[in-house]
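Re: that backbone. Tokens:
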């Protein structure tokens, strides 16, 4: 994550239309984790705007889970995955092949 923030921060002040650094996370943060990460980004990068980004999973029984799962707590394995594309959450299987490959190659940072 540090390398990503450094690279994006280097360019963020050169983008005249504004920029947003979406940091892909593998799970929802609690309040303490969020504060720690916000402080880290503020103190250790030049990124001017950033936002945590979570993938979502929804089963056919409409249970919504933060993160990517293959089986819901109800046992359902008919799972739809959602990802953020240019600021919007979309179903992963509704995007073109190139975007799907990009989504699958996204680095998910572990919450510690």
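Recovered sequence:
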């Amino acid at each position: 994550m540090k390398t990503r923030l450094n690279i994006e921060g280097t360019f963020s002040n050169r983008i005249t239309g504004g920029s947003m650094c979406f940091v892909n996370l593998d799970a929802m943060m609690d309040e303490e984790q969020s504060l720690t990460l916000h402080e880290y980004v503020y103190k250790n990068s030049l990124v001017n705007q950033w936002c945590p980004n979570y993938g979502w999973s929804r089963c056919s029984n409409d249970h919504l889970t933060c993160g990517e799962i293959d089986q819901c707590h109800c046992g359902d394995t008919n799972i739809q995955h959602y990802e953020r594309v240019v600021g919007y959450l979309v179903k992963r299987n509704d995007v073109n092949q190139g975007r799907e490959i990009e989504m699958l190659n996204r680095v998910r940072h572990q919450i510690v």
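The two ends are 13 Å apart (CA to CA). The chain has a mean pLDDT of 88.
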